[in-house]
Amino acid sequence: MPSKTALALASLCVLGLATPALAQTDREATSIIRSLAPVSPPLAAPMGGASAAAPVRAAPPARRPRVVIAQDRGARVQVTVDASRTRDFAIRFATDSAEIGEYAADQLAGLGAALRSPELSPYRFLVAGHTDARGDFDHNMDLSLRRAFAVRDHLVAFYGIPADRLLVSGYGSTALRVPGDPASGLNRRVEVALVVTVAGY
After folding, report:
1. d(CA 164, CA 53)
2. pTM recorded for the entire structure
3. How far apart are CA 80 and CA 44, in angstroms?
4. Cα(193)–Cα(84) distance, rounded to whole angstroms?
5. I need a labelling partner for 27 at 20 to 30 A (CA). Which of 114, 119, 124, 135 fits?
6. Domains of the chain with bracketed CATH
7. CA–CA separation, 106 and 182 (whole Å)
8. Residue 20 or residue 163, greater confidence
């Protein structure tokens, strides 16, 4: 049977191996918070005590608002996001896939930690999927929406983010990150943006 000293040393080794990964996640989360947190004065209002079905109230948009049609718990809604508070996540989806693999899950660790932070936890966010330009328009729109749902569901399941904080939308191939290379894997990504207002559609 291993001695207590040996077990203690083994535990320290495991912790030592885990520390760089945890530190990397913490650094990534801090960077994400800086990208997504409202600036002062805030454009988006916290969810507060509003009911889940009520729209989020906010000050009139003053900075780069963008209107998007999204899905909120099965209902189509009109969402205004602050386009200056967004972050792209180059999640390496396989071609024609919305599956969150091990590598993609690792890429979402920082986002999960950031969304749980005090700086971001009062707010709602749009999770929008993107595809490359291969395939037809309707197929890519559906695929991008499935990718957004996959990320949303992963964040809910593994990081305990309330589902009503994450709205979803799909852009298909309408907003390529690398227009000069429409088939590039860099176009297969997910964008997260701070939600300003939500209204029925």
Report:
1. 9
2. 0.77
3. 10
4. 8
5. 124
6. 4-200 (3.30.1330.60)
7. 26
8. 163
Tens-place pLDDT, residues 93-128: 777 788 898 888 888 999 999 999 999 999 999 999
pLDDT in tens, 36-50: 999 865 666 677 644
Residue 79, both tokens = 């969402």
Side-chain half-sphere exposure of 147, counting CA atoms within 13 A: 33
Report the distance separating Cα 130 and Cα 174, nearest Å. Answer: 8
Which pLDDT score is estimated for 42? 60
> In the block, which residue shows the tokens 């569901």?
153
Which has the closest alpha carbon to 87: 161, 28, 24, 32?
Answer: 32
Q: Tell me the C-alpha distance between 81 and 126, whole Å.
A: 8
Please name the residue that has the structure tokens 């079905």: 53
- In whole angstroms, how far apart are CA 35 and each of 43, 82, 123, 156, 191? 14, 11, 14, 21, 12
Output phi, psi for 8, to 5 deg: -65, -40
Q: How far apart are CA 2 and CA 102, in angstroms?
A: 33
